[in-house]
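This section describes the prediction task in plain terms. A model, or a person checking by hand, is given the sequence of a single protein chain and must write out its three-dimensional structure as a string of C-alpha cells. No templates, partner chains or ligands are provided. The sample shown here is typical of the held-out split.
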Amino acid sequence: MRFNRFHPHHDKNFEHRRFARGEGFGRRCGGRGGRLGRFLEHGDLRLLVLDLLSQQPRHGYDIIKAIEELTGGAYAPSPGVVYPTLTMLEELGQAQAAAEGSKKLYSITAAGHEALAQNQAGLDASRAKLQSTPNREAALPVMRAMENLKTALRLKLGSGNATPETVRNIADALDAAVRKIEEA
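The expected answer:
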C-alpha cells in the first residue's frame, strides 16, 4: 500500500480535520449499532452470512437481526452491506435466492458449504469477536457520555466565540481523558 498522508492510519490529525469539517467522530463505523468501532474485518461478513444460511434459509433482514443477536444488540450490519454481500455470494455460486413475494429468500449452495468448511477458523474467530462485544445496555453510559461531549463541543466550538486558549484547554482536557481511558 502506498503511503497516503490523508489516510486515517497515517495521519494523527485525521480526526481533527474531520471534526473541523463538521463530520464528527466515529463516522467510519458501519451498522446501526454504530460508534463502537469496526466489528468485522474483510471477508468476515461473507463467512457469517454463509454460516447463518447454513442453519436455515433467510431473508436479508433476518441476517441483519441474527448478527445483531450475536452481539447482544451492540451491532447490526446495515442493509447497504448485507445485500451486496448476498449478491456477491449469489455471483460466486455460494448462495441462491428464491423469490418470495417482493422479497428474496437466500439459501446456501454446495459451493457455499465448501467455502464455509475451508474457512472454519476464520468463521470461529469472527463469531468469538462478535460474541465478546459488550452488549448495548452495558455500553449505554459511555454512549450517553459521548453524545454529551459531542453536544458540548458543538455548542462551544460552533458559537464562534471560542478563543485559541479555550480551544487549547478543551484539547488538553480531551487528551487527559484519553490517557485515563487508556489506563483503565
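For orientation: Residues 135-184 form one domain.
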